[in-house]
Write a structure and sequence with these properties.
CATH superfamily of the largest domain in chain B: Thiamin diphosphate (ThDP)-binding fold, Pyr/PP domains
Structural class of chain B: alpha/beta
Radius of gyration of chain C: 14 Å
Oligomer: heterotrimer
Number of helices of chain B: 13
Shape of chain B: globular
Distance between the termini of chain C: 44 Å
Number of domains of chain C: 1
Helix content of chain B: 25-40%
CATH topology of chain C: Alpha-Beta Plaits
CATH class of chain C: Alpha Beta
Largest interface: A-B, 38 and 42 residues
Strand content of chain B: 15-25%
Shape of chain C: globular
Order of helices and strands of chain C: EHEEHE
Largest sheet of chain B: 8 strands, mixed
Chains: A alpha/beta (about 280), B alpha/beta (about 375), C alpha+beta (about 90)
Number of domains of chain B: 2
CATH topology of the largest domain in chain B: Rossmann fold
Number of strands of chain C: 4
Structural class of chain C: alpha+beta
CATH architecture of the largest domain in chain B: 3-Layer(aba) Sandwich
């Protein structure tokens, strides 16, 4: 009996491998989880449009054999909006990072969530700007060091799940690369969901974040993510101190609300009837 | 005597003519953001696009509007956005992306007084150089400047056709006067339309950025016909994937620039009025050209041998046409609502063949025919 | 095109059953030596040898695919093994 493994190769631009991500970077784990989800749903390569911004996360589309679009820093969601509006039949997946989506791209992030347009945003959160050498990000935990926060970050960091939920996203989840099975399941749910879906994925950057903060190697950082993962339902029961260290995982929001392209199609239809 | 139908004769503003031209040219996706004096273009298309199964969206900012139209264009649709100075500044990074990724789109700039917030409700022509060099890096661009409501319709259609033909953003430079002036126009029943060249290779052999003979690669669309390809703003080779190879990078950047420069005969349009026997000429564009035309008429009535050269294309700059004229006249007067942005280009083009005399206004007021006539009279005396 | 080298172990399952031992394939030129596969294997099938994982106990592999899922480099694959029939003497051994 054949193993229930996913044939990743069919989705990859194999001539581009080995990829550029550092040894121990979790980004490849996220990509694999996305491919497992896409495979299980049964999407064809022609049906998927993957759009990214700038950063380590955003190199992902170059490695996959879909319709791929590598845009400007922070703006992937806007390009994705244009694609999805004129081709609502395509499955549009945005791949972005913590800086790309919540710093420069923050405005687009909250408005796409508010509109509830049917795109899936997979946000690779490595707590740093990795590609550019390790600068501080809105998700760098307070006190942690970065090249532009050499004395430790003085700023509170975003709760990206709360941000997306507050902006009106209809599906919001968080996982880490430490639990690939949970990760691919939640990505599958996010893609299947009709509406704006966000999956925030904690992924280690041993090179830029790890070294500066003495977080150890990939194994140590990934184990740390595993140990700190706490299912959402149990978060409330933690002590204040434990809560600060905890990474809440699972699905935080899964609600039904009108989806933007469907609403638009209804408008077009109603105008057509009015003319007839 | 022909019967004018209600449908084809309209009394409309330049902004409305722009929206009408876009619809006639086949626009089916508009993303925009409110900014005076361009908002009427968005408002008109917000009304009309859903009626014909097209798409309209007001995005959260100007940058988003530019991103959205690029995405929609890559998915196979004709697209447009409209703005004014501050928004035009915001759009520049993504305009550069459209240049680099060779994405057809039309960007309308209804110019107003600048810099910065400037004069939201008053005209200027101060963004002319920005249209050429607003985005970073070596790129070429096409920019058109209609001078009437009727010409706004016509050049909007032309802007779409050029964008499709050359796989490039085209900047349509109105100003507050052209945008907000109401004129009676007869709109054509149908217009000639150019579409992006479809790929001639099968999906597995398709090169989205092929260095073709004419410099313009055929363009597939996302999710169509089995074509899957990669689009990036990084320097790339013919396959569309990023490259660090100096040979490939050089080839790409030069092709992006050459594809427009080489086709200037097709792209550049200049209207000459009474230049054959002219001893001095007036170079004017946009709404200033209306005043210049009137000044030339009045000057001729006074027996002054003056002509008007009016570029409908601002970029590529009509250098050869201007140089040619410069050999035959003593002076070219350049009235514009800025401090000499085109006057510099004129002076460079004539290479000392004649005097270049700028006349700049930056106070939000149109240049009046009388001002230009006075300058003509002064220059003909010298 | 990436060169691949395969380190495989075909060891008959100790119980002598027809359950084939999985093939564990390491793409040497893609592996960046992060060690996550070794960490995630619950059965001590793999150890790091320098910067590459080495299969030391393929017969213990249960095809859970954890190593494959956790590998960020697409450099390890677990595939269905081949059934090899071997002449046996005596009863089954554990």
């Amino acid at each position: 009996m054949p193993l229930p493994r996913t044939d990743y190769d069919q989705y990859l631009r194999l001539d581009k491998f080995p990829h550029i991500w550092c040894p121990g970077c979790g980004d490849g784990i996220v990509l694999k989880a996305m491919l497992r989800a896409i495979d299980r749903i049964g999407l064809t390569r022609d049906e998927v449009c993957m759009v990214s911004g700038i950063g380590c996360s955003s190199r992902t589309p170059g490695y996959v054999d879909f319709n791929t679009l590598h845009t400007t820093h922070g703006r992937a969601i806007t390009f994705a909006t244009g694609v999805k509006m004129v081709r609502p039949d395509l499955t549009v997946i945005v791949v972005t990072g913590d800086g790309d989506a919540t710093a420069i791209g923050g405005n687009h992030f909250i408005h796409a969530a508010r509109r509830n347009i049917d795109i899936t945003v997979v946000l690779y959160n490595n707590w740093i700007y990795g590609m550019t050498g390790g600068q501080v990000s809105p998700s760098t935990p307070p006190g942690k060091r970065a090249s532009t926060a050499p004395y430790g970050s003085m700023e509170p960091n975003f709760d990206i799940v709360a941000l997306a939920a507050g902006a009106g996203a209809s599906f919001v989840a968080r996982e880490t690369v430490a639990k690939p099975v949970l990760l691919d399941r939640v990505i599958e749910r996010a893609i299947r969901k009709k509406g704006f879906s966000l999956v925030e994925v904690m992924t280690p950057c041993p090179t830029a974040y790890g070294r500066r903060n003495k977080a150890g190697d990939a194994v140590a950082m990934t184990n740390d993510l595993k140990e700190r993962s706490v299912p959402a339902a149990r978060l409330a029961k933690l002590s204040q101190e434990d809560k600060e260290q905890a990474i809440g995982t699972g699905v935080f929001v899964d609600i039904e609300k009108p989806e933007y392209t469907e609403q638009y199609a209804k408008l077009v239809e109603s105008l057509r009837h009015a003319r007839a | 005597m022909s019967v004018e139908t209600a449908r084809s004769v309209r009394v409309i503003t330049g902004n409305e003519a722009c929206a009408a031209g876009a619809l006639a040219a086949g626009v089916r996706f508009f993303a925009g953001y409110p900014i005076t004096p361009s908002s009427e273009i968005a408002e008109e298309l917000a009304l009309e696009l859903p009626r014909i199964g097209g798409f309209f969206i007001q995005m959260e900012d100007e940058i988003a509007a530019m991103g959205a139209i690029i995405g929609a264009s890559l998915a196979g649709t004709k697209v447009m956005t409209a703005t004014s100075g501050p928004g035009f500044s915001l759009k520049q990074e993504n305009i550069g992306f459209a240049c680099m990724a060779e994405v057809p789109c039309v960007v309308v700039n209804v110019q107003r007084g600048g810099p910065s917030t400037g004069l939201p409700t008053m005209p200027a022509q101060g963004d002319v150089m920005q249209a050429r060099w607003g985005t970073h890096g070596d790129h070429d661009i096409i920019a058109l400047a209609p001078f009437s409501v009727s010409e706004t319709f016509e050049l909007t259609v032309r802007a779409f056709n050029l964008a499709e033909r050359y796989r490039t953003p085209v900047i349509l430079m109105l100003d507050e006067i052209v945008g907000h002036t109401t004129e009676k126009v007869r709109l054509p029943e149908s217009v000639e339309i150019v579409n992006r060249a479809a790929p001639d290779a099968a999906p597995d052999r398709y090169l989205p950025y092929r260095h073709t003979v004419d410099g313009v690669p055929p363009m597939a669309s996302f999710g169509s016909g089995g074509y899957r390809f990669h689009v990036t703003g990084l320097a790339h080779d013919e396959t569309g994937f990023p490259t660090n190879d100096p040979v490939e990078i050089d080839r790409l950047v030069r092709r992006l620039n050459d594809k427009i420069a080489r086709h200037r005969d097709d792209i550049v349009e200049v209207e000459r009025t009474r230049c054959d026997d002219a001893e001095i000429a007036v170079f004017a564009y946009g709404s200033t050209a209306r005043s210049a035309r009137q000044a030339v008429v009045e000057a001729r009535e006074l027996g002054i041998p003056v002509g008007l050269i009016r570029p409908r294309t601002l970029w590529p700059f009509p250098g050869p046409e201007v140089r040619d004229l410069g050999r035959r006249v003593k002076a070219i007067l350049v009235p514009e609502m800025n401090l000499g942005q085109m006057a510099h280009e004129v002076e460079w083009a004539v290479q000392g063949g004649c005097r270049t005399v700028p006349l700049g206004r930056v106070d939000g007021q149109p240049i009046r025919p009388g001002e230009i006539l006075e300058l003509i009279r002064k220059e003909i005396r010298d | 095109m990436a060169q691949t080298e395969e380190n495989t172990d075909r060891v008959e399952a100790a119980s002598g059953s027809l359950q084939p031992t999985p093939e564990i394939i390491v793409k040497v030129s893609w592996c960046k030596g992060c060690g996550l596969c070794v960490e995630y294997c619950n059965r001590d099938v793999l150890v790091m040898e320098g910067l590459l994982p080495k299969v030391v106990a393929a017969e213990k592999c249960t095809s859970c695919l954890q190593c494959e899922m956790i590998c960020p480099d697409f450099a390890i694959e677990v595939r269905e093994g081949q059934v090899e029939l071997v002449e046996r003497s005596g009863g089954s051994e554990s």
